[in-house]
User: Fold this.
Amino acid sequence: MLPNRAFCYLKPKDGSWMAMTVELTIDGKKITTSEDKTILEAARENGIYIPTLCYHSKLSPIGSCRLCVVEIEGVEHPMASCTTPVAPNIVVTTKSEKLDKIRRDALKLMLVNHPLDCPICDAGGECDLQNMVFQFGIDQVEYKANKVEREEIPFSTPLIRHWPNRCILCGRCVWACREITGNNVLEIAEKGYDSHIEAIYPEKCLSCGECLSVCPVGALTDNLSPIKARKWQAKRTLTTCNHCSVGCQLEINTFEDKLINITTKESEGTNNGSLCVKGRFGHDYIHSEERLKQALIRKREDLIPTDIDEAISFAAKKIGEIKEKYGSDAFAGVGSVHLSNEENYIFQRFVRSVIGTNNIDSLASLIFEPLSEALIPVLGMGLMTNPLNDLLLSDVAIVIGTDLDGDHQIVANKLRWAAYHNDLKPVIVDPREISLSKGFANVWMRPKPSTDTVWINGLIREIISRGLEDKDFIKKHTKGFESLKKFVEQFTPEKVEEITGIDQKDLKDAAQLFGEAKAGAIIFGSGIIGQNDSVSAIRSLGHLALITGNLGKRGGGLYPILPRCNTQGAWDMGLNPLYFPGYQPVTDDGAIKRFKKLWGLPIKNEKGLSLVDIFLKASEGKIKAMIIMGENPLVTFPDSSLVKKAIKNLEFLVVIDSFLTETAELADIVIPGVTFAEKDGTFTSCERRIQRVRAGLKPLGESMADWEIIAKISEMMGHPMNFSTPKDIFDEIAKVTSCYGNITYEQLDEKGGAWCYLGKTPRLFEDGFPGGKANFLTDDIKLPQKKENKEFPISLTVGGNFYNYLIGSKTKRAKGLALVYPDNFVLINDEDADKKGIKDGDMVVIKTENGELSLPARVNSNIIPGVAHLKISFNDIDVGKLFKADKAIVPYKIVNASIEKA
Ligand code: SF4
Ligand code: SF4
Ligand code: SF4
Ligand code: FES
Assistant:
């Protein structure tokens, strides 16, 4: 298989892909290129045009359309240049009468069956067939073949409409679904005149729209577009997806200030032109009828519409009064993992300087608290170490605690690419059967929940016992290896199997694979980060990466996958009680002096309250006022009962949001913010790439960007901030933080983003570890306690379809998402269900120490006994009430439960 051309720039430096060069002649021009190129690629590289229709740079050559034919000296028949590799000294002609006739005939044959409905076709104006027919000046089709009328049949997803009569059977959709999504949903069915595209496995369709995006004509169209407009009428604004943290680049297509649809540019972003269902079809919430257009103020029991300036002025006055009466620390600010860096920066500046407290946090702390506690003492940083495109170079990847196709499909696509083109061997660790465990994994381990620390240390032991550890790396870059070796001795394969349920052979196979890997990646999600012993498990993963020398290496690395679009940015911007922006401790005299000078106000030199403590103290009546900006903790925080109690005890709550969320309904003042499509700024993705967010639409009604609202409140409290645009705020961020230092807004525009923690490369630790060496630290590693819980015997894990858990306010208002992922359910192992008389489809009651929920059950063997999985779709469901938050690190993915038939 030829390497995918789009990724050739990523060839490893070690020369493992180094192809020999060859010389050939195309249209009289002498060309030198590498032997793994096709004639088409060699021509394109050298500015020689060859027409194509079925060729797509992201896909393996298909060779179906015959438009790219060329003549090769000494070869009798013209050859398709997209499928013919270059060869030494061949002489190629790309233009001749003979070739012109073949190309014209191919086009005419396509037109025999193609309706001339360009005036009503969505692709009109941007259709490759239309362009080719125009280019070849074909004004009539003289062939008298019978026209085949193909019946319209439903496609694999209701989000895409299939127009079979427009299909030119190029095969791109079939190839894209197979090679990029790994799903094989589509195929070209039947032969000859009866050939057509058919969804043979519609149940496997992820609704990602990859097929739609590669279709060169209007045979697949977006079935969700609320507004119709011609391609040339649409305004395209390149921006960053505001759902998950991958940070895909996409274009908002708008007409008359309304979103038409979402498209992509292959050249932009880590997504390389792909999107998941949320990115492609999950943005119509922007025009939801439920958007807030006006501010609201509480009059007795009701929230009454009011003028936005009045609302801001009232908020400023009231905050001032509460500060005066109770002091600064009676106030707390909750920022957001889906607002921009600029908004979060200005928010923390306001809370720290104008109010005068460090009581500020966001949901990012649920992720970064365990990451930091686990990895900073070992590595010096608790972040994703490598860019996501490094996964294309990995030869083994361990994926733990995330259903990547559901949570971050773009990352799963990269693994599929690497498996297809680079022989990557995946090791999937999940107690559930997920798409990557079926037919894709080389090894699939199914540990019991909360036993990850045990199997990871068992893997380390096995790697060391086989002599597969990277001795040079350990010697040069680490301290404490002997104590690690001693520590892991206890984790024999037998003991690992006894505690975790993982088959000894699987553990050994995984150890052999990962130990031998040239570049091994470790990808882990909230299944690890949000579990009970997350710190011990993550620290053990750090050790695993170290003993195998997989840090500071292309294709190696630790990849914690973050949930929301700006989780990383929120943490970087100092939305936490311990650090100013750029991780400068709030207790550091130098930092206090610098920020005091810059902000012109006194700054507190004491740590503030974490998110959990903010809600705990508020529930005790010790926090009197709060601003919640762009967050809906009543749904997104793991303990909704605590949040309810906390809010009830507040004297004053301001909520800034684009919807009247469950939290906003309890506020005293609600100020309408804008969505990502209506504002400028930056997000920082999970791979630490700072990317631009650009406004494609005007703010709705009286709504304003959250940064403007905060700046106005500050001004009304007597402290103008003097920012006119998000760029001004970014300039200040770049001035006060080293990780965003030396980056300009203009650079972000020109270069499509910049890496924070720049160093020389986007890869951490390529130049060594902070402090010289990494540490193996085993003293604090806790092992799971064997405790039988008779009342709540089931380990209930929680996850969303596409990360809806801990989100909700936008995705649940995206009509397309609700259409394809409508159901919440709890997955129960058939043996467990049998014991309780529960059948597939029955309603069940899930109880935990903290609350209960009723849901339909799905019963099968896709999950191991003793474990259940609550799968949340894009609907309202108060999962938070099942959890308890009473410490800084909150296990929000797993809880002990009982499940009974309702
Ligand atoms: S939407 Fe995605 S998964 Fe479904 S058929 Fe198209 S490419 Fe395949
Ligand atoms: S639906 Fe589009 S991409 Fe698929 S074969 Fe037909 S024309 Fe090609
Ligand atoms: S993978 Fe994440 S960033 Fe990319 S389109 Fe999907 S939700 Fe958006
Ligand atoms: S582009 Fe080569 S055969 Fe279609």
Remarks:
- Residues 1-17, 801-806 have pLDDT under 50 and may be disordered.
- Residues 245 and 686 are 5 Å apart (CA to CA).
